[in-house]
Amino acid sequence: MNIILLGAPGAGKGTQATRISEKFGLPHISTGDIFRDNIKRGTEIGLLAKSYTDKGQLVPDEVTCKIVEERLKAPDCKDGYLLDGFPRNLFQAQELDKFSKVDAVLNIDVDLSLLMARLCGRRVCKNCGESYHVDFLGGKADCERCGGELYQRKDDNEETVGNRLRVYNEQTAPLIEYYTKKGVLRSVNGVGDIEEVFARICEVLR
Ligand code: ADP
Ligand code: AMP
After folding, report:
1. Ligand 1 binding site (Cβ under 6 Å of any ligand atom)
2. Quick one: which H or E segment has residue 98?
3. Residues 6+ apart with CB under 8 A from 25
4. Which one of the listed residues 50, 55, 71, 153 is annotated catalytic?
5. pLDDT, tens digit only, all 206 positions of the chain
6. Quick check: 10 and 122 in contact, CB under 8 A?
7. CB of 10 sitting under 6 A from ligand 2
8. What structural domains does the chain harbor?
């Protein structure tokens, strides 16, 4: 099954993707992770992406669509995939329709007023990418899953988060209507305990 995880920055896409990917055996493909990996390795794509991710703007469609099109050709995607953070605007959604079939779009719904605090308090594992929140870490500095070191993303600051939420409202939110019209959208309430949200997702995917 080809699944897209839709939702504002901080809605819990990455957190739920880890769990969905494990339970359903689907590769988790996050365009944000791909860009951060390229930035870390100092590739040409990374150099370009950094100037956009640092400001909370979208990396140009041409580059982003090409990366996803190539990634979906990999053998691990032949029985399905879980896309997180793509598509993020109408153009990307239309491009995706040209190179893949979307079976389900899971929209994780969280009131935007909650997202600033979620994102500014997020800590991410350098090793496996798992997300945590400072409020629930109890002072721990290591990843519960793999023991990796936790860090704060450069774009998880008030100014950049403000931009990212604006970009979401203007460019990504219209995809809710796009996929509703196609009859593939399923919305899940993303407020509540992480495992509670996961249970709602499993119910929808069943
Ligand atoms: P996204 O991938 O959609 O940007 P993340 O999964 O990284 O979002 O989650 C953003 C922040 O919110 C992280 O700090 C994460 O620990 C926290 N978070 C995720 N799910 C929940 C939830 N159900 N309730 C409260 N906080 C959550
Ligand atoms: P994320 O990890 O999903 O929060 O994404 C982090 C940043 O990567 C975003 O703010 C964008 O700059 C960039 N990015 C991720 N996915 C896309 C996409 N589909 N299109 C354009 N830029 C993206």
Report:
1. 7, 9-15, 118, 121-122, 131-133, 192, 194, 197
2. helix 90-99
3. 79
4. 153
5. 999 999 999 999 999 999 999 999 999 999 999 999 999 999 999 999 999 999 999 999 999 999 999 999 999 999 999 999 999 999 999 999 999 999 999 999 999 999 999 999 999 999 999 999 999 999 999 999 999 999 999 999 999 999 999 999 999 999 999 999 999 999 999 999 999 999 999 999 98
6. yes
7. no
8. 2-110+169-205 (3.40.50.300)
